[in-house]
User: Fold tRNA 5-hydroxyuridine methyltransferase from Anaerovirgula multivorans.
Amino acid sequence: MSNITEVYVEEYIRDLLPEEQGILKEIEEDAIKNHIPIVHKEVAALLKVIAKASNAKKILEVGTAIGYSTILLCQAAGKGGHVTTIERDNERVQEAIKNIDRVNLSKNIQIIEGDAQEVLRFLDQQYDLIFLDGAKGHYKDMLMNCINLLKNGGVLISDNILFKGMVANDELVIRRKKTIVNRMRDYLSYICNHSQLDTSIIPIGDGVAISFRRLEE
Assistant:
């Protein structure tokens, strides 16, 4: 239970959605077995829909983990799609490389090992879609670089923005998580009122924010 929505709603939605198949299903099961965080089933479905609906071909991901969402996004991008993904944990990078090789997408995915706040400063491409799923307490620190890398008309997806419901309810806040919660509240207020973005908050998974970079007139 994520504290984002009622248990029965969460379970109903997850039961409706088809299971992943083949290697992707194996990666998902491995993540669950080894307590490695990956996107929730309903968030995975949303990522695929947005990537396809926006015809995203150049995608940037912050937070690779073992490559689960990386692969989902690359597959959704289809022919000609390319994902650049950033991960600072070397062990996770090695696992991601293996998983990406297993689905034959190594030519379509570039993994950059390093701290995202540093890496983002040196990227010089424009992306159709950016998936922000890195260190939760540093989303706002990374935002301006993300906006600069996002093309006009592009989409920024921020995951885990309600953080087990704590962001929306003080009674749920664990003391050691208070700094992260306060920073995430600040981030949400900022993107919801940003002059370059139109943002919607969606209470699925651990909370997702969808931001559209406005077209310049």
